[in-house]
Amino acid sequence: MKPKPQKDKINKRLLGLLNQTQLRDQTGSWEWKQEEDVFVWSDALFALHEIPPTKNNELSKADALAFMMPRDKVLFEVQLAALPPEGETRFNSRIKAKNGEKKKIQVTAYRLTDEEGQEVVFGEYRFVPVAVKQANSTHHIAALPVANGNGHTKIGDGPADDISPEIAAQLRAAAHLQALNNSLQEKNQQLEQLNEEHASFAFIASHDLREPLRKLQLFSDILRKQHADALPDDVKEYLLKIDIAAQRMNALVDDVLVFARIQEHPEPPEPVDLTDTLAQVREDLYDAVTETCALLHPFELPVIKGHASMLYQLFFNFVANSLKFRKPGLSPVIIIRGLVRQPWEWPGANPAPAHPWLQLSFTDNGIGMEEKYADTIFKMFQRLHNQNLYPGTGMGLAICKKIAAMHHGYIDVKSEPGKGTTFTCYLQAEVVEQ
């Protein structure tokens, strides 16, 4: 290995050769340090502008673009803004050197990622000799920057001298739109990766996490039943607690798995009779309904286009929630009401649907809660009450919130301590039959 001074000497010599080559070819290279908004020019690029190099070869963005014709500054900034990741753009421009000479140049710009994962924007200016120009020497640029199939921005022909402020504004708008499209593509890629991670998690949850839980429950059950006579009472109690904890963990895995799988729902919406959905929930919760002497009163539940399994889960979670948080000594009364609303009645922040939509509410006479917890209860693993008094995973309402979002809606809650709770779902699901 050569000593560092020798390596620096070689690098300096190579840089000198590069500058000599650029001077001969009348080109110059540049780099844009985005965080500092500073340009670094090669010595040859300074020579192309007929000015001496600055300290560290750096120029502010304003100084670097000061040599360009006013309209070409707009084009330069538009092209940098529209330049996609790992992309390239090439366009013609004009500069006025320090000595007053006007020069036509071809600008090339790249946006790449270096070995350390940092984004780098750099390129070159290349002088275009007068002899190369056509009879009509008017400078040409693109009317609008257009991305080709390779992700590069290609510039077509259009007289720069004809660019009005309105056209400049259109250029900026087009660049902004291109930048937004680039950002959207990146977000879509991230979303696809996230969905793949969710799918992987669902697989792990349904296999790798369940297997040790099954063994834990199996062995504790064997010990309690087959060796009951040989075990002290305190050990029996410990085994019972192990079994209860394993059951709770199994329930948590189930709920997290449901949550993870909601947005993986591939099938399109289909007609769902919500009266039938409630009947199925009532049947599945028969023991809890009977034990608590609960009364379920449905009103005006229509047929809507939605995801049947999700809507079942929504009904199940809200009804089970009302059964759980009932007042001691009082039979739960749960009113489920569906109201068909018109597009102009949509209260949400997102755009209103073009068709009638559903306002679905669940009202109970339970213990209620303070309004300040209205947002907290919809977060994952959040519980307001002691696990021993009201067992659960803290996932039920988070699942409901996600199901509402999958139907392009949201959930509102009104409640007072001791006066019950009303959950209202605003769903953009199309009403098929009232």
UniProtKB/TrEMBL annotation:
Residues covered by the Histidine kinase domain:
204-431
**SUPFAM superfamilies from the entry?**
ATPase domain of HSP90 chaperone/DNA topoisomerase II/histidine kinase, Homodimeric domain of signal transducing histidine kinase
Alphabetical UniProt keywords: Kinase, Phosphoprotein, Transferase
Which reaction does this enzyme catalyse, per its entry?
A: ATP + protein L-histidine = ADP + protein N-phospho-L-histidine
Is Nucleotide-binding one of the keywords?
no
**InterPro entries recorded:** HATPase_C_sf, HATPase_dom, His_kinase_dom, HisK_dim/P_dom, HisK_dim/P_sf, Sensor_kinase/Photoreceptor, Sig_transdc_His_kin-like_C
A GO molecular-function annotation: phosphorelay sensor kinase activity
The protein here is known as histidine kinase
